[in-house]
Amino acid sequence: WKGAEMFVVIDDYDLVGTSMGNPVSHFADLISQAQDIGLHFIVARASGGAGRAFYSDPLFSRMKDQVNPGLVMSGSRDEGGLFGDVRPSSQPVGRGTWVTRAGKVLIQTAHAPALE
What we know:
Elements (H helix, E strand, L loop, with lengths): L5 E5 L23 H4 L1 E5 L6 H7 L1 H8 L4 E3 L22 E6 L2 E6 L8
């Protein structure tokens, strides 16, 4: 892709869907063309209910179908495999498994506090 890149960043995605519907579900049809049009989604959600969301939520189910990369961090193993066979598990703060089509790798994220 050559051109403008658009990033859609959603934190606490589990709070987005309401009784009024999910406004982000309109993006689901764009997931399969995202690479071709410079569209990127960065979505974070609590691990509770994530396994169910991958089948019931339009955005997550399309992301799973397209085998988009994902970071699985600390959570309950009962959620099942979220990306491939990778399940959440008890992890130290900031640690997770980065999953892509090429494979998976254990990574450590970082947080740089603001300078005062």
